[in-house]
## 1
Amino acid sequence: MSEQIEGKKVAFLVANEGVEQIELTRPWEAVEQAGGEPVLIAPEAGTVQAFEHLDKSDTFEATRVVADVDPGDYDGLILPGGVANPDILRTVPAAVEFTRSFFEAGKPVAAICHAPWTLIEAGVVDGRTLTSWPSLRTDIRNAGGEWVDEEVHVDAGLVTSRKPDDLDAFCEKAIEEIAEGVHAEQREATVAS
Amino acid sequence: MSEQIEGKKVAFLVANEGVEQIELTRPWEAVEQAGGEPVLIAPEAGTVQAFEHLDKSDTFEATRVVADVDPGDYDGLILPGGVANPDILRTVPAAVEFTRSFFEAGKPVAAICHAPWTLIEAGVVDGRTLTSWPSLRTDIRNAGGEWVDEEVHVDAGLVTSRKPDDLDAFCEKAIEEIAEGVHAEQREATVAS
């Protein structure tokens, strides 16, 4: 086990249903392998029903409720995808505020697949460059973001990828950004938008 | 059976998986009861897997492939929801072009729940007023639309509703608009945007 992010707590924010399982489990393992502490946060405590594309897969246990957690306790945020997951999360005000607070603090955020919908809802996409599942391209551009088609894109603390096939690159860059800590440019871009 | 839309062909455009079943079947029955001819069109011929929320439900048969149909053969377009359905459709260029052509011709379009994502992709939301599943509110506003929280909203040939509970009002207004025929304002709004 490396000690790249030893002692750092990393928030995994998901809806109680709809998360793409491998986009939760692979970054979770990467955080643990790098010495960090992953914490599963959802709108409600208890069961998180994961999916493989549109088929139900395993369940996981959310140990924290997003409305009750202090973002100040976390060093980074990872947002897995799955089409229904951010579609639900973006309608939960506490989830949107929790997400935005990482940008306001300049802390690293990594979002994959459909997860950038939650970033759009948090109003943090304007002026940033990111990738996503291709269906979000127009929504990201309409929100003021620049959309690129890359395995992984890093923009001053914001790490984004397109799909499960990109997970190796996504996990590597997410850990790197969390290891680096606060990115002042991420804070400044959020305050300006 | 009424003869409100006797002899009119109505296109139902869906992805091959992910459509919210009741948002397909209820408007389909309403078209038939009003004397119209519904036609199920998808990116691929054959099976359409419907869902009830995130659970698989019945399958249906798409008899036309969207890339091969002439929108000129249809008098109106109905777009059911289901979170995965428009998320897939909007990535299929032929589906987006087919949808846009109804707006360019001023023909009636009815979209419910998550379906307005396909309208965003078709670039026909700017300057229009519509409702949707609440998660799309920000995407619709960012696309230049005005979002309202109503059971059904009619804007010159464009009928929108939020969810399955709104289906009575949605079907009634969809049939009314298709019965009225071409709406010049819909064509003009599309050309201007």
## 2
Amino acid sequence: MFQIPDWAFEFHGHKCPFMPIGYRMGTLAMQKLRVNKSPNHEMHVLSEMGVGHPQGCMQDGIMASTGATFGKGLIEKLYYGKVAATFWYPEKGGIRIALKNEFADSLAPHEFFKFRKKGIQPSEIPEDVRQDIINRVLKATDEELFNVKMLPDFKYTPLKGSFNKTKCEVCGEYVFERYLRIKDGKKVCIPCSGQEPAEKGFYYPGFEN
Amino acid sequence: MFQIPDWAFEFHGHKCPFMPIGYRMGTLAMQKLRVNKSPNHEMHVLSEMGVGHPQGCMQDGIMASTGATFGKGLIEKLYYGKVAATFWYPEKGGIRIALKNEFADSLAPHEFFKFRKKGIQPSEIPEDVRQDIINRVLKATDEELFNVKMLPDFKYTPLKGSFNKTKCEVCGEYVFERYLRIKDGKKVCIPCSGQEPAEKGFYYPGFEN
């Protein structure tokens, strides 16, 4: 049976089947690309998940197994609403891995999802129910779980970074150079400039700064 | 001295000072809001970090201490280029925590950054150099590290999710309902529709799907 370290559940915060699915997806990507976990800024992941739907927990598993973390800027969402991701590693090309419909269908009738659809949060679901569905993920073969497509020509160019920063001349806080704007001749941060960020994640309704 | 569990470094992939700064930031936010680590979908974090600059590692520390993870959809980037974040917890309001300029300035001359600015990745920096700068973070007081602003009236409305999904009538893959589009009368996924996603993260130059 596939093993997942306890700390990955500790990081994630609860026991559910999708963190392990993502952990296995990341592990398979590394095997197929013949690479190890990324200590620094090696692997980049383009996750096809979006917002407003379940199963995003997969992404915490991907980060835990591959080291391609959100903090290190190595995982992005493509907002396609699919349980799939493309993994790219320098000089190794890419690989797309998607959860098989058949495996999703085989899990769907499980008691775990009956609780979830009633609005019960994962940590409140009985432990034996959670462990049972996790074991199904851990016992499945890679072939039962995933469709795999090698993408040897997949191109990805990581953004070149800069250490330059300056204090905003209005609020006084440090700002990295990319995000400085000019207002009345002064170098200011985006909130002090009154401008919108040029880059945006998804805008959640209801967020008022 | 503040303690950080080994698994948080294991998750992050390397030892650096900014993962611990984020871990402490998240810990302080939980203390001030009088809440515990989020097992499910409680705390939401709006990070002021962007892309193309260092110190994003902070966000891995925030996720590790608070449980507000990327996979669970609980952390977003605001793309302001600042080492700061706002934490919101249901019925508790918000808090903004920013790294003090003075603390950033006190770390800046450290040998760790001389290596980093030469392009040397964190895992390649000598262990004693890394441990020394981490200890500076762990030994500092919250007052030395952070500016804190309570935001009792901060409003945030988490997106309401849906479990509904359908197979794309072209590629056959499952798609969550929010991301289905219509093409020639068929329900299809965004890539099969030829449309652009309505929601986007930051577009990296060089990414060709």
## 3
Amino acid sequence: MPLPTIEWEGDISGRVRLIDQTLLPTELKFVYCEDIKSMWHAIKTLMVRGAPAIGIAAAMGVVLGIKDIHAKNTDAFLKELKQATTYLGTSRPTAVNLFWGLARMERVAQENKGKSVQEIKEILLHEALKIQNEDKVICRQIGENGVGLIKDGSGILTHCNAGGLATADYGTALAVLFKAKEQGKRIAVYADETRPLLQGARLTAWELLHAVIDVTLICDSMAAHVMKLGKVQCVIVGADRIAANGDTANKIGTFGVSILAKEHGIPFYVAAPVSTFDLTIKSGDEIPIEERSPEEITNGFGKKTAPEGIKVFNPAFDVTPAKNITAIITEKGVIQKPSVENIRRILG
Amino acid sequence: MPLPTIEWEGDISGRVRLIDQTLLPTELKFVYCEDIKSMWHAIKTLMVRGAPAIGIAAAMGVVLGIKDIHAKNTDAFLKELKQATTYLGTSRPTAVNLFWGLARMERVAQENKGKSVQEIKEILLHEALKIQNEDKVICRQIGENGVGLIKDGSGILTHCNAGGLATADYGTALAVLFKAKEQGKRIAVYADETRPLLQGARLTAWELLHAVIDVTLICDSMAAHVMKLGKVQCVIVGADRIAANGDTANKIGTFGVSILAKEHGIPFYVAAPVSTFDLTIKSGDEIPIEERSPEEITNGFGKKTAPEGIKVFNPAFDVTPAKNITAIITEKGVIQKPSVENIRRILG
């Protein structure tokens, strides 16, 4: 069982403990969020990252935001709750799990508005912990549902980190690999380092190494060559938001990998919980793409690697069209050939 | 006129001055090679890099290797010359210009073996300088020949560095862009940073910025997204070795970019001098691919970014099949749809 990325410590007046993912793999350090601002900062700066983990962080962030409110009545309390969710929603625009987590907390509060402020606070903490526990079950189920797609003796390429660090427990894309390993399948994983922030080199390589899974680190630019050498039998990645038609936003570079896989006749799988689907948007064209700071590229290694004054474009995500995706693995089942109809059939 | 990457200083007992390209863009420093070992080291560690520049470095390296030989007769001298070229040939296996430069120096020595050792030494220095001067003319001619392919208002993506730093003067791929700029064409360049050694971020961005050409730095993983946004009208790259059928070895990542370009219907151009062609090999399958140290990936620029003990695959080049290449721009003309026949027609 991996070390938990995120944990609530104590009762309603407690705090959140996070693994600071920006310091891995050279340092395993916990950070403690005592208030909503520190949680906003942790999400923004990627101390906590990965779509499902962000959903949990958002819910716990709401609890941090309301724990010290001394509202006279429930209406006033709900107003302050709304401020908290709006604030947390500004931290990262692309990951739908953020908004999903915030909306769920608001809904639960609304459903219980007949109760006292103190009671609603307790209910919200309970809900955040429930989201976390549900995610654990979901991770395991994604692993179960996806493992049949992994043939014994396969080479598998993954991009970014969709592992235990990105979730409550076991990961999404990596859950499938952990499960394959449990079943005794021999697999060899190629981990894209995933520039600019190197989640593949820092996090995926670290997780797989600790799980004693055969893993080889490559630069993103090497994926095509590795495929041509016949070393990759499938690609599996996570997702940050999936539109109603199956178009999938994930870490920048995923779209390119999907094109390379198609060119080489290699199946391309997305593993994601149902909460990653945003059925309110028709296609990937409607997904906002977060642009991040130029320094992530120009000062990426603690050393200046580009000339002063250089213009930079730093989109954090791209959109892989549904037509490039062989199947989406969810906790409810595997969606083959993702389309509006095929998605609806599995999601219900 | 760019600062020369490589210069011979003095007479036959002189030395070579190089820009240490590993220190750019934060530091512009010259290194001086007084003997063949320091030149071998400079080529190996990429202080001097870029296929045409390596050809010049090889030729000057030969001069460094023979300048102090006190052979009794020409036969003994030629034997020692052979040792020098064999030694320099072990520095980097993929770039054909290295072997081209070494073979040319040997041939000239053989052609003059009737002369005295001192005379042959002078002739070899003269030949090395001739290779350098020829490269200047070649760069200009590649620019002239390629500029017609660049439409006014184009976005152009390039990978690695095929600029003035890689050649005697003006570059190959970048020569076309410098020429377009001279002609008043408006162009916007996207420079792939080019992991692991960041030649795009460090060198291409630096050269284009100094030439006041609009340039935007991106990570390699962002190329597909930038193409999808409609910002790229053509791709232009250099080459390290081109087989008789047009298959082209270039910096790792180039093959992937060629697939992305094809997917988006974007022309993909290679710019390279005739010396880059290796007509003794039929296809790219025969090109040896240099594998470099894992630390280039795991310790990019002085900070450990991957877990201890991680397995790494670090090929320095890949091969783009001729079918993905729209045209190869040489000093002798533009080879449309590269094939054995079309290449032979231009190369003669």
## 4
Amino acid sequence: MPDLTRVFNPKTVAVVGDKKASGYMWLKSLKTFTGNLYSVQLDENEIPGIEELGVQNFKSLGEIPEPIDFVVCAVPRQVAPYIVKDCVENQVGGVTLFTSGFAETGEEQGRELQDSIEKMAREGDLALIGPNCMGLHIPELGVRFNQDQPSGVKGDVGFISQSGTHGMNFSLTGAAHGIVCSKLISFGNGIVLEAADYLDYLADDPDTKYIGLYIEGARDGRRLIEALRNATSKKPVVTWKGGQTAAGSRATQSHTASLATDQAIWDAIVRQTGALAVDSLDEMIDVIKALRLSKPAAGNRVCLLAMTGGQSVVLTDAFAKEGWDVPILSDASLEKFGEFFNVIGGSYRNPLDMAGTVSQDPKNLDRILDILNDDPRIDALAMELSATFMARRWADKPEEFERLLDSIKAFQARSDKPLITILHPSHVEAAALDARQKLQARDIAVFQSFERAASAMAKVATLRADNG
Amino acid sequence: MPDLTRVFNPKTVAVVGDKKASGYMWLKSLKTFTGNLYSVQLDENEIPGIEELGVQNFKSLGEIPEPIDFVVCAVPRQVAPYIVKDCVENQVGGVTLFTSGFAETGEEQGRELQDSIEKMAREGDLALIGPNCMGLHIPELGVRFNQDQPSGVKGDVGFISQSGTHGMNFSLTGAAHGIVCSKLISFGNGIVLEAADYLDYLADDPDTKYIGLYIEGARDGRRLIEALRNATSKKPVVTWKGGQTAAGSRATQSHTASLATDQAIWDAIVRQTGALAVDSLDEMIDVIKALRLSKPAAGNRVCLLAMTGGQSVVLTDAFAKEGWDVPILSDASLEKFGEFFNVIGGSYRNPLDMAGTVSQDPKNLDRILDILNDDPRIDALAMELSATFMARRWADKPEEFERLLDSIKAFQARSDKPLITILHPSHVEAAALDARQKLQARDIAVFQSFERAASAMAKVATLRADNG
């Protein structure tokens, strides 16, 4: 097994084969790299454009005057073996093969090229990522494969993806939801290094507190199980499998030449290794959000705080369906609520229907949260932030929304109970996005629907219960 | 049963009890009303403010110089019986009681007040909507109960809601997704008129082509079943029940004093009456979108068009899980695709992974769609619109996105097969919203996730199959 330390901590990066026709996608994405960035390009017509980007170009890897920690190879498939050979000879820290057209095409030629590359890399002990992938994204070091990915920030989620798009979307959509990667690996066909190798690395990576994994199939199932078991013993691991159905499994063959693991077997693996399973990017982001921003609940009894009665009903259905208990509050709580709660157009037994009470006097929210903090029948709180309030009341009185945020933060500071929020974008998508960013800036978990909140919180509760 | 024709086609509206403290919410919402709007308010302190809004105020309903078709009653609960009495005596077309504080409070006083109002309305044959509700929204006539609701447009969806918030959110979020109501009724406690009455009316309403229903409980189950059966024989009916769980059912009592129908019984009712069931507002909007904008598919064999390989895999899983068949294309199609499709980083057996091919030459999309139109193995098409394309490529070349829209519209014009699109907002929420509005303006169905698209299209296919 090649050592991955250099490639995950690069001080030098070289891109082989970037060109104008592809919009210099690699060199432009890597312009945020904190170390030295080089280009390797033989085509005289391409060199001036590369130099205009301020990147020094060489004719071969060997000509670069310092050792290269990470190589991006973006050449056509016929040229790829020569670059891999060069990587071995120059003892680079690792190489990612963006190049595709190998086993995933189903063509004989692609399969043969792939075999020769694999053989060379294995014999040369080369850390080869891919082929048919996007490689590495390390925000802290400005290593990126897309120009919209964050840089200069240190994240805490390690993400391993057999799909370049899912890896990219996790980094982009995740960032829009306040989640930044420590290290992200898109590994495509995974002919040398595969998911298990990256799991082993991230399990011991001190910057990585949570691991996400998108996988289609593993060459060595036993190794993957061991790596999952090892990783889950150290940090939460959330898995998402592509190719869950017969048709989806056929699609994985054209995508990464993977024989998708049978779903029933995969489910058993997830269960036995103590990982979590999700079925979409949205779920992946929701669950990681819940892991990062919600305290562990002591039990499954939730108090639901809605603005209006209709929402209180469907919010309750959503949580109850996910196994949450929505109990009537303690007698002491009911008595205290009875003193000030507006019951005309409101109710407080749990769920709460509280718009009237909170609008009457904003201090009432603190009062409500205090009562729930003291209620021994309640382990967790989930609060609706209403889009219609967002559209009118909070648009007119932004200080009232700020006050609400302060109340939530103050509760989170003094209480051991998790409190999460739900804000459906509804018809005020721009305002809801702005509000979401305010919540995220304060590290308050906010979900986009009752169902998504209930599901993510339930999955996380299960994971925490299983892993003690 | 009171006749509902006048109240649903009002030429005159009177609001009783609107005031400054509530922001004149009723008079401001109704400023778009196409007929004559009046106010009834006794409080001398409130009258100048009302007249400043340009609304003529009277001291009682009887003083208004013309018959009133629709009354909004926004007085405190103790005053409500007097207004209901006035409505009977003045033979108004109908009245909605925004007033709450009745049986839903669980208090004796509230129950008694409700009983007296019910008795008066029944004896006076008064079309009483509510109490504890938002009443009517008729966009074409500018009848609204929220200032962000559309007006001056004629919609085709009748929506009946036991919850004011769900009714309001359907009209607001629906409008943001291109769906406008013909008539919307929020009926709260439903003590005189209930869901069955509105179903009967909308079943025969020529402006209403689709019916949506949010319900918590029915007083007369047998009548509701008959009304559902009658309505589904004339147009599609999509139902959403609140109080599906024990805890949710408890919440309905505080909300609309409803004893929620047992969920197993409700499921049987839905099945037997040929209605559809959904579980959230998002699902309601998705299904109505699919009904309005997708042609009926001849069968369940779908071709999935994704931009990248990873998306092609999870798009396939999402549709296959919802019962869609994702077959390999016909030999004739495969042969034609083999002539031009880019298989390095792409594939075409179904699902399609087509970014490379379409980017190479935009005409290739028309070619792809033509081949699928001719393929006898395919009944329906679902196409991913990529957020990362939206962020970069289409942002730089908006004409390329316009061309894509033209290709979709041209296909829809020449093909009998439904074609729907999916655009996840991802990290480009503003751009995705803009793109969604462009799609909606062209009556192209666009869903926000693979799962939501697959589910809505499957539900609609079931409904259409069941109802022949």
